Amino acid sequence: MKKTKKAVSLLLCAAMVLAAAGCSSSGKPASKDEVKKIGIIQLMPHNALDAANKGFVDGLAEAGYVDGENITIDQQNAQGDQSNCVTIAQKLVNDGEDLILAIATPAAQAAAGATSDIPILVTAVTDPASAGLVDSNEAPGGNVTGTSDLTPIKDQIELLKRIIPDAKTVAILYSSAEDNSRYQADIAKTEIEAAGMEWVEATASQAADVQSVVESLVGKVDVIYSPTDNLIAGAMATVSMIASQNNIPCIVGEEGMVENGGLATYGLSYYNLGKLTAQQAVKILEGEAKPADLPIGYLPKEDCALAVNEDTAAALGITIPQDVLDEIAAQNK
After folding, report:
1. Model-level pTM?
2. What are the residues whose beta carbons fall under 8 Å from the beta carbon of 60, sequence distance 6 or more?
3. At 99, is the secondary structure helix, strand, or coil?
């Protein structure tokens, strides 16, 4: 009988220790002193996705969650291969990560398909609802939430008209394999028509197709518009080379594409988008919110900015209007 009482006493003590530690089995949020495991799956390396990744890690550090101290971050990159996304997502689930960040739509879809239990944050996803990741952007309802990189497409088309006022036909260049690229392309069609221009679709399903697709536009369009599309962003150097050689300007979805040869954009900061996602991560890690109840986050309009590649403009023989240059100067003060 004494042995039984002693065993019960030991079990009670163990339970109290576990509860005080805030371990996951207790159902209580862990403290900042407990090392949490975060897995990051990024679709491919390019400026925008890299910036979102860095903003997320920096945002966590600013909130007191530092890699190698009270969190461990497992960085994984699928190198643009969607089958790699599935393999990596399963690895992160098998490793028992406490939270997963998925950067770009294919990575997010792979992560969501791998687990319904581990909290998943997505970023650089234009419309999580239409990508099948959440019940709605306002009320996600499951284990997935995050931030949207929906850019001001109307403003981008207006910028196109400001810089190239005589443009009549616009090619919408995007990946036919990305749900959110199709979503943006549909918005662009409406805005291009509203601006009194015509559009043609130019789609590629893989990187090897991009060069031939751009070459097929020569002599048929006045300008190329490409939204925040991972395939095109990754091939932007090729797109801009062919386009510039044939005097076709490219208005693009984000600043990294401008840096790689696009003419101009009015886009958001992917670094700030990553930091916004980190704020959501902190709420989840500290037990203040669950993904199901956290709406998809959007950057405010003041986080959007004009960017122009002056070297590309010079190569195309385009003079950037003074009002555009004045706006860039004002935002950089």
Report:
1. 0.79
2. 38, 66, 67, 71, 278, 281, 282
3. strand
Of 178, 142, 179, 154, the closest CA to residue 293 belongs to 142
Give CA–CA dist 217/202, Å, rounded. Answer: 8
Please give the single-letter amino acid code of residue 310.
E
H or E element in which residue 252 lies? strand 250-252
Going by C-alpha positions, the residue among 22, 44, 4, 72 that lies closest to residue 229 is: 44
**How distant, in Å, are the alpha carbons of 49, 76, 104, 116, 232 from that of 145?**
17, 20, 13, 12, 25
pLDDT (tens, 9 = 90+) of the chain, 333 residues, equals: 444 434 434 333 343 333 334 444 333 344 556 899 999 999 999 999 999 999 999 999 999 999 999 999 999 999 999 999 999 999 999 999 999 999 999 999 999 999 999 999 999 999 999 999 999 999 999 999 999 999 999 999 999 999 999 999 999 999 998 888 999 999 999 999 999 999 999 999 999 999 999 999 999 999 999 999 999 999 999 999 999 999 999 999 999 999 999 999 998 899 999 999 999 999 999 999 999 999 999 998 778 889 999 999 999 999 999 999 999 898 887
Residue (of 130, 138, 124, 140) closest to 54 by Cα position: 124
Side chain identity, residue 1: M
CB 118 within 8 A of CB 143: yes
Mapping DSSP to helix (H, G, I), strand (E, B) and coil, where does residue 38 land? strand
Distance, C-alpha 98 to centroid of its chain:
21
| Helices (H) then strands (E): counts for the chain | 13, 11
CA 287-291-296 angle, to 5 degrees, is: 125
